[in-house]
Amino acid sequence: MVKRERKKAPARPKKAKETAEKDERTPAQEADLVTAVPVRERGLVPYDPLQIYLMEIKNYKLLTREEEIELAIRVREKKDKQAAYRLVTSNLRLVVKIAMDFHRYWTRSLLDLIQEGNVGLLQAVGKFDPYRGIKFSYYASFWIKAYMLKFIMENWKLVKIGTTQTQRKLFFNLAKERDRLIAQGFSPEPKLLAERLDVREKEVEEMSQRLGGGEVSLNAPVGDEGKEVYGSFIPDTGVAVDEQLSTQENRRILLNKLSEYRERLSGKELDIFDNRIMAEQPMTLQEFGDKYGISRERARQIQERIIRNIKSWLKEEIPNFEENFGSFIK
After folding, report:
1. Most exposed of 103, 194, 239, 318 (fewest Cβ within 10 Å)?
2. For 84-106, what is each residue's pLDDT tens digit?
3. What is the tally of helices (H) and strands (E) in the chain?
């Protein structure tokens, strides 16, 4: 008896097999697979914004001297936006070049420097005078550098360090001058640095501490297991609680005594006391004079006499009156 050989089914192509398995997956399984693969691994080409930007600005051709002057005149006299656009785009590579020089100061993001430099370039286009015979790129470089320097100083640390002209001078020259002295065989002491940079020795020491010191949050604990935070060591500039209570008590005593003295007054003196001395919106001396048919000067004299009498009476009634209540009655 001859056994009949069983034919094997043809092997399914690998691609077709993967397609079939994919079709058998549920929507939930598909979602799990998508979230399991990081976004970076799914990209076919690495995404580099800086390289893309550099490739794009290469498409803008440089201007000749004659084209630059012509466009600058159109911007200045006619406010031509298209001419301004060409001036800006043709100098974008200049911004990148300057940003690369400043990148040694600011190593976080070159694109941030380029962005700030582009703002400076826009300012240069609006301020440039083509009739002075100055090349636009030379003029624009100062605006570009100024905006980059301002950005670096404002973002170097949380606490600003270049708020004065002297601080800005030290910020950019201190490290270079220190390296120069070391190369010459000198010890970069603060006194010598101050003489070389024409600043005070104290300013050199302060800037060295700012550049070299780190930043600590006021809410950070003192020590590894400390319960106190650094902010608790900052002195309170407000009035202490005991002083506030003392002031309130003195004010209460004074008002009670003034109420007692009021009972001694009558007529014009009582009216001046209520509507002139103690009133939040006092009447004028002229109004009192017109009311009682006396001169303004006479009304002032009556008021001065009442105040002198009040002070004399309070000194007798309240111990240490001048010390505790001198600020209340002047």
Report:
1. 239
2. 999 999 999 999 999 988 877 66
3. 17, 0
